[in-house]
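Practice set, problem 2.
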Amino acid sequence: MELNEIMEFKYSPLIREKLAEFGFAKTFSEGETILNKNAYIKAIPIVTSGSIRVMRTDDEGREILLYYIKAGESCIMSFLGGLHDDTSKVKAIAEELTEILFIPTDKVSLLIREFPEWLDYIFRLYHKRFEELLEVVNAIAFKKLDERLLNFLKKKVELAESPVIFMTHEQLSKELGTARVVVSRLLKQMEDQGLVQLGRNKISLL
């Protein structure tokens, strides 16, 4: 797929040529780790197909979902860490078979200086990610876990473009930062209410 078909705005022909010249593509399988916490960022990812989930982890291995990165988008955390030669504060995992175009961090600075639309792209991403992080904070602080779970399932359905979600209760609990038994209990309540249908390692949103 051409970059100008997936990005949120149309690149000039010159910047598309520069991205193709500077970047290198790599494919990741579903569940494969793309970036680990505390790793140095040497290149900025642009998702060309598939999707990525970005997680925050603690020292005990507990995780919580921050946001998803879809085709045409990049990770603003990687932008900031790469530009300041800092380590990653998040973990990125391929949600499905995903292809990424990596732009070396030194080339990112060059693009910022030469192409105003590239800087605009970064600011658009920053705005979107900031709003998503505010939603996470708001959900944790003010919403009950059953509301968070239902909203999470709706996002997964939207991302997969399918009402069927293939996830275990254990996977759900990790992404929501809670216990598996709590997720199982809430899903059973939601099934009794006619909101979902539960199967073996899958959940159908009704």
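Problem 2, part (b): a different protein.
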Amino acid sequence: MSMPDLISGPPMSRRRMLQQSAAGFGWLAASAFMAQAGENGTAADPLAPKQPHFQPRAKRMIFLFMKGGPSHVDTFDPKPLLDRDDGKPFPGEKPRVQFAPTSELLKSPWKFKNYGRSGLPVSDLFPHVARCVDDLCIIRSLHGTNAAHGGAVLKLHTGSDNFVRPSMGSWITYGLGSENQNLPGFITICPTFAHGGANNWGAAFLPAAYQGTPLGNATVPAREVAVRHIRNSRLTPAQQRAQIDLIGQMNRDHLRHTGPNLALEGRLNSFELAFRMQMAMPEAQDISGESEATRKLYGLDDKVTENFGRQCLLARRFAERGVRFIQVTHSDGEVQWDQHGNLRKGHAKNAMEVDKPIAGLLADLKATGLLEDTLVIWGGEFGRTPTAQGGPDGRDHNPEGFTMWLAGAGVKAGTAYGATDDYGWFATENKVHLHDLHATILAMLGLDHERLTYQHAGRNFRLTDVSGHVVTDIFA
């Protein structure tokens, strides 16, 4: 178009001006988006597999989240001096910020024994997991920054305890996509609505396709969880396909005039995934074909272990079908692992519910070869104090030092890394901050935590914010 044409022609609209000016990069982005449309006219699938930054140790991850904060000094971090000095004052200085006052030192009610070729100690709370100890890498020097459940749970899941940020599972699916386009890339089984709720599996400012898909919640028995409205009783698959195509065409026409719209694009992608899930999700959740031996392995034959065992079995079924990130939450909807009182009864109940299913999951993954490229992580948002609270049968929150363990996918199995002090209050040796844990998890999946970024509100964000170091010492 010549300059006289521009001057004498019809008035130029703002949209047309942007298309024809150096400021029209948004329009170019929209055009690129349209160019990626598939045969049905839908946008390119954002969950399509992506290349990692470098050779990964793991292809997928299962996170076994113990809501409430299990006590490290009663599970995987024995403290002989705590036993010796039971009832005495803590000899050091307590943290400046505490969730609640505590009194004297409280020894563990459970005994520790050494297991496996590695000889790692595990308490009587976990006799089944103890038999898998040679597959575990136990990190005893985790530490965080928040003594309250809400902030600590968010920090563990999103890397931030005071802002809405994308969850760990969302970052991982954003970086890697998914290996199965007929299932969500990120599934969370029976999550809790407490202490951050949907923020703990949300995508925040990442595209909506990367948020977690919840199956049920902590108040719903695992045998009842299902994706709502998975069956359409009114329309045939062909009719649904035609309906989605029409909706897609109408919205693409809209996008051609308005430019990129992440919310709308995410909605279109969700329609496509929901259509594909109608066959894939019911099949993945149907455990009727599992052998009796497998059902017993996960504890489905016992009412105590059946609920969490079913969650763990579903996690394996999703993992083998290519789901990138699966979270399993143990939370009874009440006090969970949060024993400020009734420590003996509460921790014993919780451990009995999860011990056999977790060991079954590890054994099953190992037998099928999935453990070789599946990263399994166990832990809660913090640990517990070595001092008593509410009488001699409770412990308070402790983010200053606690334990999590990893298994599979290239971790240095049969080892313990880091340490807390002689009584278990503070991480002291080879300290691992939650940002370091996140950086390490991403590295195992082939992602550089400093490169996995997303620009929002004028700056680049990442799961580890401006911190985080990869703990290469735990790599095999």
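Answer key, part (b): Confidence is low (pLDDT under 50) at residues 1-10, 13-43. The CA atoms of residues 142 and 432 lie 5 Å apart.
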